[in-house]
Every structure is written in structure tokens, then in C-alpha cells.
Amino acid sequence: MEDNSTPPLRERKHHRTRATIIEAAMTLFAEHGFDNVTVSGIAARAEVGRSTFFRYFVDKQEVMFADDAELKRVLVTVAQERAAALTPIGDSLAAALDVATCGVLAVSERIAEHSAWLAVRQRLIEEHPDLQARNLVKQYGYVEAGVEVLLRHGATLEIAVLASNLAAACFAAGHARALAEGIDLPAAVSDAFARFSDIAGPSPR
Hints:
It is built from 10 helices and no strands. The chain is mainly alpha-helical.
């Protein structure tokens, strides 16, 4: 019987090539700094052509955010599953924050699966204003996605925006602590939510 769980060969090759480009780019960024690395250099390191690079990424900045689409899918999928159990959320900040917490913790766990470049990526972003700007746009995208999930499940606009931004703040606090102390990212993010809950009160489970 054919194993339908195994991706087709073409898809596996696509993922391998993409992963190779990301690894090559991040290695070069770590060694030489972001500004001193070119697309041609990344392609050469990955042993692919420039045209192949541009089939996967629009520019070298986007390599830094290569997992953005996947992480957003994780956030939305997990948040929707939790929200379905609490619909309609209405004006309940506790329920909305519960949904946002589940989504953000799932994102943290997925990031931790590929955390080898976490510290390097953060250093590069801090050193480069253009990367800071693009990072802010990406972060806003996660907040916006969380808001949309909450609105679809009956939350008021005020509650949806507040809960999504509070969850984003807890992630930022956990991320900063994980990098500063070298601890597990999901644990640090979970601790940040716990500290907030100590003040705000527990969310419904």
C-alpha cells in the first residue's frame, strides 16, 4: 500500500533546496554581517543559481523571515481550535486572551524546533534598521491574524485587539528572556503569560 503521508519527491526537493538556501544565508550573515552578504554569495554557498534563489525568496531580507507564513498558519490554526470551544467570546477578555495565549504558545513551540539561528537572527535585526522595520511589519501581521480569529468567533473589536496585543507583549518578553538567559523559548513565553495571569486572574480552561 502506498504511503500517502510521504510528500511527493518534487515537494521534498523543494523543501531541501529552500532549507539549504536558508542555512547558507544565515551562515554567511553570521560570519560577515547582513550588509556584506550578497544574493550571489548566498547562491554560491548553497550551490544553486541566482534564479533559483529568487524562486524561493524575493530578496535576502526575506530569508531572515523564511518561517513567517508557516508560523502564521500555526497561530491561526491553534487559535481557531481554541476559539471554537469558547464561542461566542463577546466582551470576555479572559476568553479572548486564552485563545491568543494558545496560539502564541504554539508559535513559540514551533520556533523552538528550529532555534539554531534564533540569537544570530535577533542580533542581525538589532543591527540593521531595514530588518527592524520588516520585523515590525511581520509582528503586526501576527497580531492582525489573531484579531481576525477572535472577531470571527464573536469577540468585540476592543477585546480582540487588546487580547492579541497582550499576547504579543508576553511573547516579546519571553523571547527577550530566552535570548538573555539561554533558556527554552516556550517555557520563557509561558512564564510571561503566567506572570500576567497572576495580576489579571486566570483565563478559562
